[in-house]
Each structure stands twice: as C-alpha cells, then as structure tokens.
Design brief:
The complex is a heterodimer of chains A (861) and B (117).
Chain A: H1 2-8, H2 14-34, H3 40-76, H4 78-107, E1 118-125, E2 128-131, H5 135-144, E3 148-162, E4 168-175, H6 179-183, E5 189-190, E6 204-208, H7 210-217, E7 227-230, E8 233-240, E9 254-257, E10 274-279, H8 285-302, E11 311-316, H9 323-367, H10 372-405, H11 423-451, H12 466-502, E12 512-516, H13 527-543, E13 547-553, E14 564-568, E15 581-587, H14 591-595, E16 599-602, E17 616-620, H15 621-627, E18 637-640, E19 643-651, E20 666-670, E21 686-691, H16 699-709, E22 716-720, H17 721-727, H18 730-764, H19 766-774, H20 779-811, H21 824-850, H22 854-859
Parallel strand pairs in A: 4-9, 6-8, 15-20, 17-19
Antiparallel strand pairs in A: 1-2, 1-10, 1-11, 3-4, 3-7, 3-10, 5-8, 6-9, 7-8, 12-21, 12-22, 13-21, 14-15, 14-18, 16-19, 17-20, 18-19
Helix pairs in contact in A: 3-10, 4-9, 4-10, 4-11, 5-8, 9-11, 9-12, 9-18, 10-11, 12-18, 12-20, 12-21, 13-16, 18-21, 20-21
Chain B: H1 13-21, E1 27-28, H2 29-39, H3 48-61, E2 64-67, E3 82-85, H4 87-109
Antiparallel strand pairs in B: 1-3, 2-3
The chains are: A alpha+beta (861), B mainly alpha (117).
C-alpha cells in the first residue's frame, strides 16, 4: 500500500518529493491507522485524486516561481536577454522562411490526387531538351505507349474576353478531353469537357478559374450556360474549377477545349503541344522513359526526315522547375542553415559565458540547500523562455520575409505563389534552439552542482576553466567559418548579378513604354485589316509630343523567349554540328530605331514589303556570322517557316531569352508579308513607344488612340522596357538581397561572439593582467596580447572558411554567369571584411584590458 | 525583506487554518491536520498534498520556519518535522483576522449576518 503511494508521489517535482515524501507517507500511515477497513477503498480513491491534483498544483507553483525568477534574472541582464532573443529570432525566422519556400517549390506534393504519378512529356532533339510535341507525335505516343494510364495535351494562349464588363486580355489553356481526367480533378461547379465538345468543329465551351469567376462574375452560381466572346468566338461556360486548381500554372484564368483538326496532324515538325501523363500504377519514370525511347526510335525509322533525332523526355510534373530556380533555392536553404548554426553557436556561447558568471551564484544557492534538480529545472525554464521569446520574434521575422521571397517561386509549377507558412519548420527550428538552450544553459549548472565542493565559493576563484575557454573559442571559430562561407557566396552571386546587369541587352531601354493590343481572330484574320489597325495606331502615336519612335513586334524580347524555327541555308544543309535555328518575329517598320537596335547594313523592313514582292528578312549579326562570315549577306537566301526569304538588312543581336541565357540568332520578317490566317501566333501584338521625358504620361493618350481605332480592343501588359529587363534578373536580385541579409546577420553574430569571448577572457584575467602590469608590462603589450588572440581566433575560422566557400562556389557555379567560383577579389573582400570586423570586436576588450589598474585588480581578490 | 502583510491577503483558507493551528505551539504535519479537524468539528480535513504544498509556500513566504526545538522526548517522533509560526506569520494572521472581522461587521450592517451592527 505504502509502496503504491510512494510511486504516486513521483508525480510531484523531485525537489518537493525529496523534502516532504517521508512526512506525507507518515501522514498517510496515521490516517490508515485511524480508518476502518471498510473505509479503505474510498480513502484510496480520494488519495489518488488528491495526489494528482496537488502534484499539478505544485508543478504550477514551481513554474510560476521559476518564471518570476527568470524574469528577474533577465531584467538584471537586459543586454544578454536581448542578444539571446535576437539571435534565436534570426535563426528561427531565417529558417522558417527559407524552408517554407523550398518546401513549396521543391517538396510538397502537388495538389492533385496521386501527384507522384503525374509526369510531363517533352520532345527532345539534339540541342534541345524540352520541345513541345507535334499533334501527330503526341497521338502516336499516346497510342503506342503502355506506361501511362492517361495522357493529355494542352497549349497556352491569351485571348480577348468580351461580354462581361470591360474587354480584357486573359491567359487561357486549351486542353484536350484527357487533360482534366489525367489530373483527376473535378470542377467546383458544372462538369468538364466531354469527348464531343473536344471534337473538330464542336462549338466553344469553357471552364472558368475560381479567381475569374469571383472577379468577373461575383461568384454567381448561375454562371453555367452563360455565353462569352473569346476573340470574337462564342463560348458557353460549362463549369468552374476549384480555387486551388492551377494548371499548367497560376496565370491561367480559363480553359477551353482544344478541338484539334485533322489538318493539325499533317506536319510532324509543327511542335506546339505540351503533354501531361499519369503513370500506370507501379510504373516508374525510368520505365516510362525507356519505353518512350523504343517508341520514338520506331517513329524515327517510320519518319526519318521529320523525326530525325527526336526522342522523348519524361519527368515528374513536380520537377518542372528550372535548374536555376532549384539552385537559387538550395543556396537559400544552405544560407539559412548556416544562419541557424551560427545562431545556435552564438546562443551556446552566450549561455556558457552567463553560466560562468553565475557559477558563484549557483554555488551559493546549492550551499543554502537548493537541490540540483531544482536548479536545473529553473535554468531549463530560463532557456526555454529565451527560446520561446526568440521563436515568437522569429515568427514575426519569417512572416515579414516570406512575402518578399514569393517572387522566387517559379511560374512553371502548378502551385500558388503565396507561400504557406510552414509550421513544421518553425517547430523544428524552435526545438533545435530550445535544445541548444537547454544543453548549454543547463549543463554548466549541472557541473557546478555536481562538484559540490564549493570551489566556486572560494574567494578569488577564477571563473572559467581552460577547457571551457577552448570550447567557446571553437564555437567562435565555427561562426567565423560560416560567415566567411556566406560572405563569399553572397559576394560571388552579387558579382554575377552585376555582371548580368552590366550585359548589353542589344537595345536601349530609357524612355520606352510597352503594351499589348492582341488583335483577335477572326476579326483581324486578314493581314490588310491588321495593317490598317497598326498604321492608324502607330501614325497617331507618332504625332504625340515627345514620341521619337513607335512600332509593333510579335513578342517583346525577354518576355517571350520562344518562337524558334529551324533554318535551312543551301550551303550548310549537311552541317549538323550545331542546331540550325533562329527566333522568328514579324515587325512593323521603325522597330529597330524605336528600340535603338543598330542597323549594321542594308535596310529596315518597309511598308512596301508586301506579298507581291520577294519575301524580305532582316537578320541579326550572329545569323550572318554563322552562315556567311566575312561575306556580304545582303541578297542571300535561306529557308525558314516553309518559305524562302531574302536578306535585306542586318541588325545588332539582342538578348531575346533574357539577360543570362544564350540566344538563337534573330530573324525579322515584314508584317505585311504573311498570307491571311498564317502564323496567327506571330501576329505583331506588342507595341513599343520611345519618347523623350516621361513616357508613362503618354499612356492615357495611347489608350484613347487604341480605343479610337477599335473600341472593343483591350490594352494589356503595360510595362516599361526597363522594367522588363530588370525583372529578367529579378529573382537573382532578390536572392542576392536575401543572402546578403543572411550574410550580414552571420557576420554580425560572429563579431558579437568574438567580442563576447575576448571581453570575458579579459575580465576573468584581470588579476593576471594586473600582475603583468605591476611587473612592468606596458599598456601596448596588453592591447597587443588581446588583439593577437582575436586575430588568432579569426584566422582559425577564416582558413577553413575559404576552403568551404570555394566548395560552395563550385556548387553554385551554374548560377555565377561566368564569374569564377575562386574569384580572387570576392575572396579577398570577404576575408578582409571578416578580419576587420573581428578586430573591431576585439578593440573594446583590448582597451578595457589596457585600463586595468594593477592595484585595484589585485586588491579586488 | 518581508513583504507588506496586506499583500498576501486574502489568505487561502488552508493557510489561515495552518497558521491558527500553529498559534499556540509548534506542530508536525499530522498534528496540524488533526488540530484543524478538531477545530472545525471535522468539517475541514486537509490532505497530505494540500498540507505540504501550503507549507512549502508558507516557508517561502516566511510565514513559517522549520524548527529544531522539539517537545518532550516522550511525545516526540524523531522523523517528524516541526513547524513554528514566525513573527511575520503572526502579523499576517492578525491582518487576515482583521480583514475577516471587518467583512463580518459590514455583513451585519447590511443585515446578512446576526448580531449588532
């Protein structure tokens, strides 16, 4: 009976139990003696609940007491408290933000059923790993393969939506009947496309995205059956997709049935379909790939000319992230881990120093009877309070950082841009810091209590043993190492960014405004109708004050990098050494001068370049260098887009694919030399206007001009050219900023760490310093001694830091845009910065050491 | 070092009873329980947990001390711990009694309690 009671007493805190268990047992024994046998069961039940209740109450008492004590202790040392909380907050905040983002982009399963089975299919050709499929190849792949439970094809487009409020330009996906069943998604309202609705000649049907439904239709459930005009064709709304459905990416606002026609299957080189597949249960991506290799080889034998070198690429839909986005994220996560490690090291250091300072206090408390358990518990509470406070601030910090990072979420994935806060990461980082806090906060106390010989109480006992100092020095060295790695990585990325931003795009951006007026079919099917529109709009715009140039082009550089076509040049037909491709654009006269792209020879396209003249082409310098180096290219012929063209002019190259990608040579065709209804995708739709002064002020007038030319024509995508160029490196710029912030934090923490270690060393050696000075050491010697120690610590950290930074640089090489991972200037700057900062951290302790008065220092003891 | 007695008021009833039990003599735990039980005619019977939790807190607040002084050996049980009320404890108990007295006086004035107002 009593044994059971003793067991129950373990619910109490040990300190309480040690003190009162004997008494309580005695009380119970007396009570048992006074109770009759019949009263026993009731007594025991009562005792059980009594123990549970009182044990909880005692725990609460202890906690209250510890919290009170903690609050008092932290108030006494506000510097320590603030630093510790800040350190923890930075570590937790940085990690929560970085991992939330990485998790969303790289890890979290897509929000489709069985997302692991979903794959993306691409065609590959020598030189290209992600080509769209031609309808004929898609149909054959689908028919011949057995690895897929389902496969669907789609294409992205943008249309003018009329019939509900202002006409607008919306991004749409044209999907075949199998895409939505492949993804296994159900609409929120209505139904998906039936096979009949996807048939050739079927009337138009569409599905709305949740966002568009809310914005344009106020979430009206009666929207089903409504008729809308997309590019002047009538479509019936048959459904609304769920709020979290993004496919192929988050820009798509509605879906129509693709309705492939028989004629679409004619040309195997007309690649414009993207394909998504669902693997059959148990089939791996590798198996699907090898099956597709067999199928594509078979198709190559069947169509040796069209399918020459054509193979298939299959990979999980989840992995449709560019290598660059991936690396940027890895760098971010790596940096965040560095920050967390540094934060933990610094916290450990802070707590160790504090424990040393308190050794005496703890010894006193042990001497007056506080149990070891009680002290440990109190210190644990203290550490946890610090971790919790830090965590709370960390959440705030992460909350502020996550939206900033949202632009790093690539738009190739069917995921939301807004990053959900990752509580698991928060918890993990919190636990790690709490653990650090407990280990480094409590272990010293444990040791003090265990010693119990009260050496710490002896007057003049020197706080801090040599072993402890070595440990703390090691922690500081680790911090310096990590901050060197971060500084160098940031430096390398910054140099890469500067280098890219310093690249010449090939055109001048100042004062250029761009916007899009995409002319809908069939209204503008005829080339002449379009020409009228362009001439009217361009003519009026050129009359505006300050305008020095205006022209239309198919796609603006850096906004659209595709539109690549094979090129055939008679003299180079057998040369397979490089991909013979170029980007194709149609332009109105004046495009090159409006963009300030230099004309290097020949002439610009003209209004007179119509179909009754030979097809003209203006090509870029690199096109000429590839085929006719050191020769006059004017008048030469090449075949592209099914037709023979004659070169009439040569212009400078521009960076079509953005500031950091290599680009194909460029070919420009005159806007009038296109048969009605051909190359609709390439119709000039982007307007560039160069003006002196504030080009943005022209916008209302430009809107009026467009409206006057066609009242139903929406204007969209208004941006300055400078903005377009800048956003081509925006994700990098953000990355550099975030890494820079991380590096700055790490750097600061390392400096604080070094300062802490030296300051403590100086104060605990005051007597030694005093003795030295009494024996004739000069102040300069003392300062030198402290600085030397600081420099030693810094160097010990910098050397491994350089090695690790070199390795980090190698890993990041793909992101460095040609900056060498062992870029000497960056390394020198980073190490120099690190050494300077640590030396600055040493100055105060060194000065303090030099102020030690030998008499006071020795009398103090 | 002691706080103002008023800052501890009102006292939890267990605390006040323990102070009353210790008013006349030092007692050990079970004796306190018995004393309270007799004083209240069995209406209040502290459990061991409640007793020692209260004692712990009262020790911290300085209302009690453990005492080395023991009663005559024939009455003593060696293992027992004895508690004694401190002057501060007496002060706090008086303050609590005053507080209760005032309360009763006011209750009488408003007709809630028997006796003279």
């Amino acid at each position: 009976m009593m044994r059971l009671y003793r067991l129950l007493l373990h619910l109490y805190p040990a300190s309480f139990r040690n003190e009162y268990a004997g008494e309580m047992c005695a009380v119970l024994a007396r009570r048992l003696r006074d109770t009759s046998a019949t009263g026993f069961p009731a007594l025991w039940i009562g005792v059980f609940f009594e123990v549970v209740f009182n044990a909880l109450a005692v725990h609460a008492d202890v906690l209250r007491q510890d919290l009170r004590y903690t609050a008092r202790a932290l108030r006494r040392t506000p510097g320590f408290a603030a630093t510790a909380v800040l350190v923890v907050a930075l570590g937790i905040g940085a990690n929560t933000a970085a991992f939330s983002l990485a998790d969303q982009v790289l890890l979290r399963p897509l929000s489709f059923p069985h997302p692991e089975q979903l794959v993306k299919l691409w065609q590959t050709e020598p030189g290209y790993t992600r080509l769209e499929l031609s309808p004929a190849n898609y149909a054959d792949w689908k028919k011949m393969s057995h690895s897929f439970a389902a496969m669907g094809a789609y294409n992205r487009n943008a249309v003018n939506l009329v019939g509900q409020g202002e006409p607008v330009r919306v991004d749409i996906a044209m999907v075949d009947r199998d895409v939505l069943p492949t993804l296994e998604v159900q609409p929120l309202l209505g139904r998906v496309f039936s096979p009949a609705e996807d048939g050739e000649g079927a009337s138009g049907t569409l599905l709305l995205s949740y966002g568009l439904w809310q914005r344009r239709f106020g979430g009206d459930p009666q929207v089903l059956g409504r008729q809308l005009l997309l590019n002047d064709e009538r479509y019936t709304v048959i459904g609304v997709m769920p709020r979290t459905f993004y496919f192929p990416n988050r820009d798509i606002e509605l879906w129509t049935a693709i309705r492939l026609k028989a004629e679409n299957y004619g040309d195997r080189n007309d690649n414009w379909l993207e394909a998504v597949g669902r693997l059959r249960g148990g089939v791996t991506v590798a198996q699907a790939l090898s099956e597709m290799a067999v199928i594509t080889a078979q198709l190559e034998r069947q169509y040796p000319k069209e399918n020459e070198g054509t193979r298939a690429n299959v990979y999980p839909l989840r992995d449709d992230v560019s290598k660059q986005s991936r690396l940027l994220l890895y760098a971010l996560v790596g940096a965040a881990i560095c920050v967390l490690l540094i934060a933990c090291t610094n916290l450990a250091n802070l707590l160790l120093v504090r424990a040393l300072m308190r050794e005496k206090e703890l010894a006193v408390r042990t001497a007056i009877g506080a149990g070891r358990e009680r002290l440990v518990r109190q210190l644990t509470t203290e550490s946890l309070v610090l971790a919790l406070l830090g965590g709370a601030f960390g959440v705030v910090a992460a909350g502020l950082t996550v939206p900033l990072l949202a632009r790093l979420v690539p738009n190739t994935l069917p995921v939301e841009q807004a990053t959900a806060f990752d509580w698991r990461v928060l918890l993990f980082a919190g636990l790690l810091t709490a653990l650090t806090g407990v280990v480094f906060g409590v272990a010293p106390a444990w040791r003090v209590c265990r010693k119990a010989d009260l050496t710490a109480l002896r007057e003049g006992a020197r706080a801090g043993s040599g072993k402890k100092e070595r440990l703390r020095s090691a922690l500081v060295i680790a911090e310096v190492t990590a901050s060197v790695v971060l500084l160098v990585s940031t430096g390398l990325l910054l140099r890469a960014l500067w280098k890219l931003q310093g690249n010449d795009p090939g055109f001048r951006t100042e004062g250029v405004l761009t916007l899009r007026t995409a002319l809908p079919d069939p209204k503008y099917n005829a080339t002449a109708t379009r020409a009228n529109f362009y001439n009217r709009v361009l003519g009026d715009i050129r009359q505006l004050p300050g305008v020095t140039g205006a022209a239309y082009i198919s796609f603006l550089p850096m906004v659209m990098g595709g539109g690549i076509w094979p090129v055939e040049v008679a003299e180079h037909l057998t040369d397979r050494s490089a991909p013979h491709t170029a980007s194709m654009r149609f332009v109105t006269p004046g495009f090159f001068s409006a963009m300030r792209i230099p004309l290097r020879g020949g002439r610009d396209v003209e209004d007179g370049d119509t179909l009754d003249r030979p097809l003209a082409a203006v090509v870029s310098q690199s096109f000429v260098e590839r085929y006719w180096p050191h020769q006059n290219p004017l008048g030469r012929h090449f075949k592209m887009a099914f037709q023979e063209h004659t070169i009439v002019g040569v212009v400078g190259d521009i960076r079509v694919r953005g500031m950091e990608s290599n680009c194909e040579p460029q070919v420009y065709f005159p806007y009038r030399q296109v048969q009605d209804g051909w190359f609709q995708f390439y119709e000039p739709k982007d307007l560039v206007v160069r003006a002196e002064g504030n080009s943005g002020a022209l916008l209302p007038q430009i809107f009026r001009i467009v409206h006057a030319a066609d009242a139903e024509q929406p204007v969209s995508n208004v941006r300055t050219l400078a903005d377009i160029v800048e956003s081509s490196t925006a994700s990098r710029a953000i990355e550099v900023r975030v890494l820079g912030a991380f590096a700055a934090i790490a750097f600061l923490l390392a400096a604080v760490g070094i300062h802490g270690v030296l300051a403590f060393a100086v104060s605990s050696r005051a007597r030694e310093i005093g003795v030295r000075m009494a024996l004739g050491a000069r102040r300069g010697d003392i300062v030198g001694m402290v600085l030397f120690r600081g420099a030693l610590l810094a160097m010990a950290g910098v050397i491994p830091g350089i090695a690790l930074a070199w390795y980090a640089g190698k890993t990041l090489e793909a992101l460095l845009a040609g900056v060498k991972p062992y870029d000497a200037a960056t390394f020198l700057a980073a190490t120099g910065l690190c050494l300077t900062m640590t030396m600055l951290g040493c100055l105060l302790p060194a000065w303090r050491a030099s102020r030690v008065d030998p008499m006071t220092a020795m009398r103090l003891e | 070092m002691h706080e103002d007695p008023a800052s501890l008021l009102p006292l939890p009833s267990a605390t006040f009873h323990i102070l009353m039990a210790l008013a006349s003599e030092d007692r050990h735990g079970y004796a306190i329980i018995q004393d309270i039980e007799q004083r209240t005619d069995g209406a209040l019977r502290l459990s061991a947990g409640t007793l020692y939790r209260s004692i712990q807190r009262m020790l911290e607040q300085g209302l009690l001390v453990e005492t080395n002084h023991r009663p005559a050996p024939e009455l003593d049980d060696e293992r027992r711990r004895y508690y004694r009320i401190t002057p501060f404890g007496t002060k706090v108990a008086r303050a609590e009694a005053n507080r209760l007295h005032e309360l009763v006086r006011m209750a009488r004035a408003s007709g809630f309690a028997p006796g003279r107002a």
